[in-house]
Amino acid sequence: MGNSIEVKDLTLNFGSVSVLKNMNLDVQEGEFVVLLGPSGCGKSTLLNCLAGLLDITDGQIWIKGKNVTWAEPSERGIGMVFQSYALYPQMTVRGNLSFGLKNAKMPKDEIDKRVARAAEILQIQPLLDRKPGALSGGQRQRVAIGRALVRDVDVFLFDEPLSNLDAKLRSELRVEIKRLHSRLKNTMVYVTHDQIEALTLADRIAVMKGGVIQQLSDPQTIYNKPSNLFVAGFIGSPSMNFLPGRTVEGGRAFLFDAMRIDLAGYDGGAVLERDQAILGVRPEHITVTHQAPAGPSIPAVVEIDEHLGADSLLWLKAGEKDLCVRVPVEGRLLAGTRVHLGLDISKASLFDTKTEQRI
């Protein structure tokens, strides 16, 4: 399986401002890659470079083995789906789907065949003779996806296509996009700031910050073994808990607020002794007990018990540090209750405070 998209040493400057910095990215044939990051990190800018909507400053872009760095968008073999539906209001759904094909002078029977196929895949056959004004937001976004689908291209680029929809519709369309990828097996590059979309849709996620890819890996690795503090804090809701301290005893233990935490079972590299380190533990990898457990633990005081239905979020104070723990719903814990927090060190992350990199 070869590369469908290759980005080589791509740099983009707007005047003296560097927006994308010496970026390299390979997307495999049929892969679903999500570009994830906060606003202003460069993810949509990178997608626009792939689409040919922005001229890059330096580097190369290859699609399907062809150098398209300076090719027109129409020559790149891509279909693009934007955040705004950008449908023609005066045309029916059928007219919107077929408009680009008619402009390309495609035979009518081929146009009809492609429109029918896209409508069947997206389940919008009953909507073909309606105008966009008579459609819901989710239906309009399906039509926008269909307009890219009829072009019969190898690569689809999605720029935050679900961000205009409400939470329920977003969830439904997310599943449909995943089904679409499973059925079509096309290469898809998808931009979002929503980590749930990224974790559920992606084969691999590229987490971006400041025009640089911080980590590129499968969702499980990104979640369980974040490469640095930024990725660890950005992925996960609520965010990972960070305990500042230092490693002692040749790296066999961690000292937080004068409390010793045994690091036996840490699934990382050689820890060694470090004057400044940060222990990261996700809310679901901490247990709450009234008696001190056998393994690594720290005492804490409950501040807020937040019921979420299936589980609860406990907000606690350990020393001067605020922590969050996800626990099953088993009756409320009153504010001021003293508890012990058991830490699953096998699923924890250690970071060097100075470099912010995972140890």
UniProtKB/TrEMBL annotation:
PROSITE patterns: ABC_TRANSPORTER_1, ABC_TRANSPORTER_2. InterPro entries: AAA+_ATPase, ABC_transporter-like_ATP-bd, ABC_transporter-like_CS, ABC_transpr_MalK-like, ABC_transpr_MalK/UgpC-like, Mo/tungstate-bd_C_term_dom, NA-bd_OB-fold, OB_MalK-like. One of its GO terms (biological process) is carbohydrate transport. GO terms for cellular component: ATP-binding cassette (ABC) transporter complex, substrate-binding subunit-containing. The keyword Membrane does not apply. It holds the Pfam family ABC_tran. Keywords: ATP-binding, Nucleotide-binding, Transport. Gene3D superfamilies: 2.40.50.100, Nucleic acid-binding proteins (2.40.50.140), P-loop containing nucleotide triphosphate hydrolases (3.40.50.300). GO terms for molecular function: ABC-type transporter activity; ATP binding; ATP hydrolysis activity. The keyword Translocase does not apply. SMART domains: AAA (SM00382). Residues 5-235 form the ABC transporter domain. Belongs to the ABC transporter superfamily. This is sn-glycerol-3-phosphate ABC transporter ATP-binding protein UgpC. It comes from Tabrizicola piscis. The gene is ugpC.
